[in-house]
Every structure is written in structure tokens, then in C-alpha cells.
Amino acid sequence: MSVDWRDYSTPEKALEDYPTFGLACITAELSYSLAQTIEYTPIKGIQGVKDNPAHCEIVGKKNRKTSQQFRDNATYLKYPEVEVNQPPTDS
Question: I need a labelling partner for 63 at 20 to 30 A (CA). Which of 23, 35, 74, 86 fits?
């Protein structure tokens, strides 16, 4: 799972290129309690990919229970913007 380390980023910076995305915060403690490891993997110098000095990976098996624990223990800073498709109108 790809995340940004808050010491190297801000919510505004994380969403800068993704204005319709949501943003949730999870703690390292939660990750470790779910048998995950955290690897600091800054992105730099990859053609076609914006540099991201805050990039990290949360590594480990993420079964349904683990995914639910992440979801249920996250702090949501911004919910994603969801476009609702409207049925066509008769003219």
C-alpha cells in the first residue's frame, strides 16, 4: 500500500495532483499491529512520474480483516468526490 510520510508532506501536497481523491491518515503503530512493515521508498528521477520524497510502502499480506482494520481505524481528512451518473432525460 502506497502512503506519504507526514514528516515530508502535507495533506494539500498529497492531493495536489489528485483533486477528486480522498485522503485518510493511518498510524505506523496500526500498521505494525497488523503485522505490516513500513519501507521508506522516495520516488525520484523516474521518467513520467512526479518526484515524491514522502513516498513509503506498507508491506505485508492484506486480507479482508486487515483491510477492514485499516479502514475502521483511519482518520479521514477528505472523502473522495464521487460523480453520480444521471439517467438521460427525454427531450
Answer: 23
Residue 91 belongs to some domain of the structure: no
CA dist., res. 29 & res. 58, Å (int): 12
Residue-wise pLDDT tens digits, 32-67: 999 999 999 999 999 988 999 999 999 999 999 999
pTM of the model: 0.79
Residue at 20 is within a domain: yes
**Among 17, 30, 90, residue whose Cα is nearest residue 60:** 30
Assess if residue 90 is contained within a domain: no
Domain count for the chain, please give it: 1
